[in-house]
Amino acid sequence: MRTRASGRTVGGLRTLSLQAPAVSLLLMWMLVPLVMTLWFSFQRYNLMMPSVSGFAGVDNYYYLLTDPSLWTAMGNTLLLVGWVLVATVVGGTLLAVLLQQEFFGRGVARLFVIAPFFIMPTVSALVWKNMMMHPVNGILAWVAGLFGLPAIDWFASLPLTSIVIIVTWQWLPFAVLILLTAIQSLDDDQVEAARMDGAGPVAIFFYITLPHLKRAISVVVMIEMIFLLTIFAEIFVTTSGGPGLASTNLAYLIYIRALLDFDVGGASAGGVIAIILANIVAFFLVRTVAKNLEN
Amino acid sequence: MSTLTLKNIVKEFTSGSGASASTTQVIKGVDLEVKDQEFVVFVGPSGCGKSTLMRMIAGLENATSGDILIDGKRMNDIGPAERGLAMVFQSYALYPHMTVGENMGFSLKLAGVSKEERAEKVNAAAEVLQLGPLLDRKPKALSGGQRQRVAIGRAIVRNPSIFLFDEPLSNLDAALRVQMRIELARLHAELKATMIYVTHDQVEAMTMADKIVVLQGGVVEQVGSPMELYHHPRNRFVAGFIGSPKMNFLDITVTGVAGEGVTVRLPDGSERLIPVVSQTEDGASVIVGDSLTLGVRPEHLMLDAQGPFSGQVQVIERLGGVTSLYLATPDGSGDAPIGGLKSDEQSDSGWILMADGDVNSRVGDSIRYGFDTERAHLFTREGLALQNLNRHPLTSLTRQDNSLSSASAAQEARA
Ligand SMILES: Nc1ncnc2c1ncn2[C@@H]1O[C@H](COP(=O)(O)OP(=O)(O)OP(=O)(O)O)[C@@H](O)[C@H]1O
Ligand SMILES: [Mg+2]
């Protein structure tokens, strides 16, 4: 029996029994789907061919890894995550600096910038599809018309770019929110000291504001990355991954495999690969972010 | 050469917007003349506008009206960096992500000075402040005193014509404060720079200043050398503000006005001649029967069996060398200012007597005491002082006269 004075009774029978409900719930929640996915990924399991079943070995993985569509989807995933991150961090920083200034109607402006965050992905994708980017009815087409330019059929000619724009629009408020809070914690005296040292607005931004925001930016990158790796609704509603595979990311590819091709085994193999990919990203990311947060 | 002149500076802050906007005047017409190489200290109660005034000099805040002249040039519309001033903030305001060296060289970097020259100047400043071994550290890894030195170093590197300090030592502990105070005085002599300094600390103000500016509610109450403010306060506010513990006040009536002074009647019925003029500076004359306020500093009261005042000792504070006796006001109108520091609300209640460290009075003792009439002050109802007939001989003393180097120079000159 460990003493109380040591402050640790971890592992004692009593504490274990108290932790048990929470732990078993978590296990069920996380482990069961994971194990099932792993299990299916080694099975011949196609809903269209119920008679073909049994252990498949690494066949599912072999077909998947040799399938060019996997690599296309991975490339698209990285492009999507990368561009949205760049756009939200750069745009978010600039907007946060802007919204920090005193101007008439600042409160309302802040509210408008934050608002897209509260709209669910499906709805915002629909709005963009039918009201903004529609080649006939869309506002963008109308604006292009004002300048005498031909309307762009966004989802046909620039599918991935369109998705990036929509997702950026959704995630920009998050970046602004975090970065604005961070900017507000910047010491006024520091800015004034810099002004006395001869720094103009641009120098203050690069030498004072940006270094101050470093932590907040890494937090934004980390959180957004986790969510952006699994973007689905926006693609589903707008391009359905097309044309061809031009806007298919990993999550959407798995969906295609499992529910359009009914190949549960192949889809599960894709899922496992996605898990591995996410873990690799998370490993590097968490490490750099943790290092960043430390100092 | 760097002088500063303020001409009728006014500062108004506007709060709210549109129709509901309201303006508050924070600085209400300040005139000030700062000479080359002078060390000027701003003192005043919290919220009187010291920082605001300093920020206007620095260019961080615009004056609503009035002129700010540096070396005779009007600076109102010139940015903070181009005024050639450097400011040391109370919070240090070091750049946390830069090393000490980068912090100090930041202004030079922005000015496009080459790397070698920058390093040279930073090293020179680090030498003066003994910061050499710390140049590669980040501010986070420094103690409070070291940070303060870096902040001062950052100012020195810019080689400013005027240094501005806003309560630079208030975050340091007492011992460090004394050390930095001496260091700043040394720096002032070494750099031969003009310095303006805001402080709450009496000792800092009295020991460092060539000239003290007492502010209250955005108005300059008095400007003068420390000894002048101590011995010849212009009004009751300055008299109460300068000196610690605070001056004791008592309401009395005038029984005689003559060339050699004003005679007043004390609570015990006796009369004393105070050697002051009978006219205030705005020309009002005192006549027999007027009620005035007598002001006596605690250090000018003394135990005296024949003295005109009597009272019961309510609290005793023994500091070894001196002993403070807390007493009720002699006319019985107020209790002892318990807590040592008299706050503003109870500034007139109770008296303090500073006696020798060896007095053996006890709490509850009834004592009689008197005061030095030569050093007593009289104030009119409006708070204006009746100036002493004899100027105190030390009032024109400057701070340089107190330091060794000038003393030896004076001796040499005599020899
Ligand atoms: N930006 C501002 N807007 C409105 N009022 C202000 C502003 N800055 C200062 N004030 C007011 O101006 C007055 C003077 O402020 P200031 O900071 O100069 O006081 P201070 O003498 O430095 O006080 P302390 O000794 O406490 O530092 C205060 O009453 C303060 O409330
Ligand atoms: Mg202040």
Automatic annotation (TrEMBL), chain A:
Subcellular location: Cell membrane
Gene3D superfamilies: MetI-like
Keywords from the named record: Cell membrane, Membrane, Transmembrane, Transmembrane helix, Transport
Membrane-spanning segments: 21-42, 78-99, 111-127, 139-156, 163-183, 216-237, 266-286
Keyword Membrane: yes
Record carries keyword Cell membrane: yes
Biological process, per Gene Ontology: transmembrane transport
GO CC, any one term: plasma membrane
Boundaries of every ABC transmembrane type-1 domain copy: 74-285
A Pfam match: BPD_transp_1
InterPro entries to which the protein is assigned, alphabetical: MetI-like, MetI-like_sf
Topology in membrane: Multi-pass membrane protein
Family affiliation: Belongs to the binding-protein-dependent transport system permease family.
Protein name stated in the entry: Sugar ABC transporter permease
TrEMBL record, chain B:
Alphabetized InterPro entries for the sequence: AAA+_ATPase, ABC_transporter-like_ATP-bd, ABC_transporter-like_CS, ABC_transpr_MalK-like, ABC_transpr_MalK/UgpC-like, Mo/tungstate-bd_C_term_dom, NA-bd_OB-fold, OB_MalK-like
Pfam families on file: ABC_tran, OB_MalK
Superkingdom of source: Bacteria
Gene Ontology molecular functions: ATP binding
Entry annotated with the keyword Transport: yes
SMART domains: AAA
SUPFAM superfamilies cross-referenced by the UniProt entry: MOP-like, P-loop containing nucleoside triphosphate hydrolases
The ABC transporter domain, residue ranges: 4-242
Keywords on record: ATP-binding, Cell inner membrane, Cell membrane, Membrane, Nucleotide-binding, Sugar transport, Transport
Cross-referenced PANTHER family: MALTODEXTRIN IMPORT ATP-BINDING PROTEIN MSMX, MALTOSE_MALTODEXTRIN IMPORT ATP-BINDING PROTEIN MALK
Stated name of the protein: Sn-glycerol-3-phosphate ABC transporter ATP-binding protein UgpC
